[in-house]
Amino acid sequence: MRDSKTRKARLTLGALGVLLVGAVVGGGVVAATTLGGDDDSKGASTSPTPTSAGPSPSQSTDPQQAAMTPEKARKLTLETPTGQKDGLSTGFSKAPGGDVSTIVYFWEEYAFLDDQKARQQLDSIVSPDAPGYADELISEVRKLRESIGLAPSGGTPAGITFSTSVNAVRATSLTGTDGQVIQVWLNYDRYSTNADGAPDKDPLKDQDVDFLLKWQDGGWKITNEPRYWKKRSFARAYVPDSHVSWMDGWQQVRHAD
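Predicted structure:
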């Protein structure tokens, strides 16, 4: 007979619409994301500076650009990682595009339900200038585990697998035109496969999360330092065929072949 905790996790994760995936507020990732629910927390943009990683739609006066949508526009091709370390892809450049590539790969690889693997990943990518940030994120992993009937610490229930796919990004500089510190909003879907091999019939779709990144020690690190945190902006809803989404800075991503 299948373990009762595994059954509960399977049923709960398949239900989508009851649990809070995670809300690290007051100094971390804003992922106030209800499984299967609407995200009404997305506010208006405060018109930050788009990074040079992609186009600058919010500043364009070209009529053709005004009619553009993320779906019509050229996708941002992510850099190809050159290695793996601590459970994360590595080798992204400091050049425009390396920052977005870093955070997209991180979010797609993040062990959001396994606190031990997540700790290894976070110790690698969290800035040394953000003490306690990794602990906050690990606390959210453990809270999520408890909310679906698992022990606070441990791995993903046997037989259950997840895949996260980032659809689009909204990258803006928090330090002017130099792009040394950026905020990246991610729009993503998350899918699961149940313990019996059956795919989730109601996957987590159209969810948003944001991170702050800065170049440090030869790579892009995530941070929640107050001096940058207070400069964050809130994205308008990502809609693939919306010119409003395009003007707000949303851009679809494509993984390198």
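Summary: The first helix runs from residue 4 to 15.
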